[in-house]
Amino acid sequence: MKTGVVTEKDNVHYGDSFAGKIIVLPCSRGSLGWSDMFRNSEYNGVGPSGYVFTTMDSKCGTAIFNTRRPCVADFPADCDPCVEIHDGDYIRLDGINGTVEILVPAEDK
């Protein structure tokens, strides 16, 4: 991944860059190449600045390990970050304490 741009044709974010942004996902998808894509984007200087996963799995863990970026994962059943956090929200991610805070909702910008 040399550009940090989403290339999956059916993805709602097709053509958008994730470079320097916090990615919010329910979990990983696809093969082990999924975590390699994030590792390669990090090596090329176009990786995300952090990750929020509703549920951690081995591919998510591999991506976090390889990129050395902060992550918060494994939310309780009554808290889905993919529902609570919206595109364009400014958030604070604290991987040490396991917290995510919405600082400025997208609709307030």
TrEMBL record:
<protein>
    <recommendedName>
        <fullName>Phosphomevalonate dehydratase small subunit-like domain-containing protein</fullName>
    </recommendedName>
</protein>
<keyword id="KW-0456">Lyase</keyword>
<dbReference type="InterPro" id="IPR002840">
    <property type="entry name" value="PMDh-S-like_dom"/>
</dbReference>
<dbReference type="GO" id="GO:0016829">
    <property type="term" value="F:lyase activity"/>
</dbReference>
<dbReference type="Pfam" id="PF01989">
    <property type="entry name" value="AcnX_swivel_put"/>
</dbReference>
<feature type="domain" description="Phosphomevalonate dehydratase small subunit-like">
    <location>
        <begin position="2"/>
        <end position="62"/>
    </location>
</feature>
